[in-house]
Amino acid sequence: MERRHDIDALRVIALALLVLYHVGMVYVVDWGFHIKSPDLLGWVEWPMVLVNRWRMSLLFLLSGIALGLVLARRTPARLLVERSWRLLLPLAFGIATIVPVQAWCEARMLGTFDGGFGSFLLRYLQFRPWPPGSFTGAEYGFTWNHLWYLPYLWVYSVAVLASLPWLRIAGGPALADWLTTRGRWLLWTAPPLWLLVALLMLAPRFPTTHALLGDWFSHARYFPVFVFGVLIAPRRAIWSALVARRWALSGLAVASASVYMALRAVGRLLETGAATMESVEWLVPLAAWKLVSVSAHALYGWTALLALLAWGARSLNRPWPGLRYASEAVYPWYILHQSLIVLAAYWLIPLGLGPVREPLLVLACTIAGCAVLHELVIRRVRWIRPLFGLPARHAATASGRIPPAPANGIA
């Protein structure tokens, strides 16, 4: 297939949402983060909840699609080597050099470390456990923080690539053909039903940890989405069906999101004592309250993903000015952005700039830092490029054009 510009564009949009979301984490009330401002913003929670229900699933979906698009051109063994190189090397580099900035700022804010970053890094690179509570992940001796996506993506890629030879022997291609033709209805209905079961059965028992091992709810949430992306990537009939149903999918996403957010708002009123259960039980009976809320959550999370794919295929699948450059920048920006957010907040919070100027400056510093480091260092220094998931070749060809970003890492 020709290059899918809509997937590149959705990748860029997903990164932009991720940066905004993590800036919001500094200011949202009652959500833990590595650094928190005293100028908390209560309203930030609501748009963050809406995005949170599908933002990481979108990244795994795009990564699955990227893998599915190149399967026909490369062998599973070659793809496994390439994905391992482009995921595990940036992960190791990020753990050793990028993420420690967050850990140091967090430890300084908590008062568990009073030295400079150099002395902190020397201690951190020994990879020995720290006293519990020193910073997030201190008990393990190191932390990957926002880079947790990379080991998850690597494990999922290995699982899919290793299973391909066995699936071909066992009739996997015929099953895939059936699923994407006569059995297409299962692709629309099974994922939200599976997410509903996971939310009801796994989420209460296995809270999200991002520790890879034992994080069963997260795996139940993200691995099927990744596999779905691999499955549909090269199948034009599925994409045509998505585009044809884009309005219906958008309507379902809006309706289910409205139900979910309305119930969440009512729940907040109950928590604050502004309403009693008796006064709101006319909306949803008490016995059905959780089931309706979780069902709306599952339906919204899935239909929002499909609607994004549908509208992307319909409106974004064409070359946009700067898209290739932005698509190449996604992986380095992903690796850098959260450490820059935490560092900017660490510098700016003591200045007492208030609830408007401070978050805007944190966002501006993050964007400026990512842009400068990517443009002036990462994409220009050959040996640094692989550390951020880019090929070692220069970003520009002899003709001066920027080649397509590789389908790896963060999609």
TrEMBL record:
<feature type="transmembrane region" description="Helical">
    <location>
        <begin position="331"/>
        <end position="349"/>
    </location>
</feature>
<dbReference type="Pfam" id="PF01757">
    <property type="entry name" value="Acyl_transf_3"/>
</dbReference>
<keyword id="KW-0812">Transmembrane</keyword>
<feature type="transmembrane region" description="Helical">
    <location>
        <begin position="185"/>
        <end position="204"/>
    </location>
</feature>
<feature type="transmembrane region" description="Helical">
    <location>
        <begin position="54"/>
        <end position="72"/>
    </location>
</feature>
<feature type="domain" description="Acyltransferase 3">
    <location>
        <begin position="5"/>
        <end position="373"/>
    </location>
</feature>
<dbReference type="InterPro" id="IPR002656">
    <property type="entry name" value="Acyl_transf_3_dom"/>
</dbReference>
<feature type="transmembrane region" description="Helical">
    <location>
        <begin position="287"/>
        <end position="311"/>
    </location>
</feature>
<dbReference type="GO" id="GO:0016747">
    <property type="term" value="F:acyltransferase activity, transferring groups other than amino-acyl groups"/>
</dbReference>
<keyword id="KW-1133">Transmembrane helix</keyword>
<feature type="transmembrane region" description="Helical">
    <location>
        <begin position="12"/>
        <end position="34"/>
    </location>
</feature>
<feature type="transmembrane region" description="Helical">
    <location>
        <begin position="146"/>
        <end position="164"/>
    </location>
</feature>
<dbReference type="InterPro" id="IPR050623">
    <property type="entry name" value="Glucan_succinyl_AcylTrfase"/>
</dbReference>
<feature type="transmembrane region" description="Helical">
    <location>
        <begin position="247"/>
        <end position="267"/>
    </location>
</feature>
<keyword id="KW-0472">Membrane</keyword>
<feature type="transmembrane region" description="Helical">
    <location>
        <begin position="84"/>
        <end position="104"/>
    </location>
</feature>
<protein>
    <recommendedName>
        <fullName>Acyltransferase 3 domain-containing protein</fullName>
    </recommendedName>
</protein>
<feature type="transmembrane region" description="Helical">
    <location>
        <begin position="216"/>
        <end position="235"/>
    </location>
</feature>
<feature type="transmembrane region" description="Helical">
    <location>
        <begin position="361"/>
        <end position="378"/>
    </location>
</feature>
